[in-house]
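Ligand: adenosine-5'-triphosphate. Inputs:
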Amino acid sequence: PTILAIETSCDETAAAVVRGGKEIISNQVASQIAIHEQFGGVVPEVASRHHVQNMTTIVKKTLEEAELTYADLDAIAVTEGPGLVGALLVGVNTAKALAYANDLPLLPVHHIAGHIHAANLVQTIEYPAMALVVSGGHTSLIYMEDEGDYQIIGETRDDAVGEAYDKVARTIGLPYPGGPQIDKLAQEGEETIEFPRSWLEEDSYDFSFSGLKSSVLNYVHNRTQRGEDINKADIAASFQRSVVDVLVERAARAAMSYDTKQLILTGGVAANSAIREAMEVKMKKIGVQLIVPPLSLCTDNAAMIGAAAHVEWKKKNIAALTLNGVPNLSLQKR
Ligand code: ATP
Ligand code: MG
Ligand code: FE
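Predicted complex:
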C-alpha cells in the first residue's frame, strides 16, 4: 500500500508518503526549532499554532514531491500519541479530514512504534528483535517477539536521556535543543570529570538519569559560585561518557539475555555520534546486528510513521473518524 503519513506529536510538522512500509516516496519535515529556541524549550501552545500554519503546505509539498494525488493513495496514517495533546490534535484532525474527504482508511500509529520502524526504511527488521529508543521523552528497551508485539523490558524511572541532554546543555549555556550541541562540544573535550552512572539493581533493564543530571548541575553551580572556571567541553565529554556507558551496557545485556539477532537504536538521541560509535563497537563484539537509521530518520519525521502504519494496515487496524490524540498512549496494550 501507498500511505500518506502525518506526524505532529511535538515540534516537527511532518508528512511523508511511504510504500509497503519500506520505501520512502517523499518526506517533508518543517522543524520549529528556530521558534522554540528563544524560549529555551518547546512551548506547547506555540507548537500547536505553528502546526496549524504549516500543515496544509507540508501535506501539499509531500504529494507534489511524490508526484501523486489522493487517488494514488491507499490510506492516511497519523501519530495518535504520545505527545503534546494540542500538537497531536492538529495532525489527527488533518488526517481525519483527508481520510473522510478522499474515502481512505485511517491508520492510527504510536509515535514510538514509528521511531522503531524507522529501522525498516534502511534494513528489514528480523524478529525477534530488541529496540533501544532514546528520545526527548523516552528511554526504553523494547523486546519484540514478533511484528507489532511490543514488550517494554526497561525504561527510565525519571528523566529521559534527551531531557538530560537538554538540561545539561542549558546549564552550561548552550541553546535548545542541547543534544546536538553537547554532541559537537564533547568532541573538543576530555573525559576528565567523574560523573556518576546509575546502574540500579543488577538484573534491571531500567534507566535513571536524574542523578547524573543533578551531579552535572551541582558541579557547575559549585564551581561558578567559587568563581572557578568551568571547561564546558570537558563537562560535555564527561557527561556524555556516563550516558554512553550506561546505554551500551544495558543494550548489550538485553540483546544477549533475550533471543535476538538485531538491536535497533533509534529516537532523537540516536543521532548522537558517540552513542552510535560505542554501540557499533559493542554489538560487533557480541555478534548482534545493529540497525541505526540515518540522523534524519532518528529525529521526529513522518516517514517512520508511514513505516509503522504498514503494521496497522496488515492488522486492518482502521480507526474511526472519532479518533482522538492521546498524550500518554501506551505502546504495550495495542
Ligand atoms: P519522544 O519521541 O519521546 O516523544 P521527542 O519526539 O521530543 O520525544 P525526538 O525528536 O525523538 O524526541 O528527539 C529529540 C531529542 O533528541 C532532544 O532531546 C534532542 O536534544 C535529542 N538529540 C538530537 N540530536 C542529538 C544528538 N546528536 N545527541 C544527543 N541528543 C540529541
Ligand atoms: Mg522534536
Ligand atoms: Fe520522537
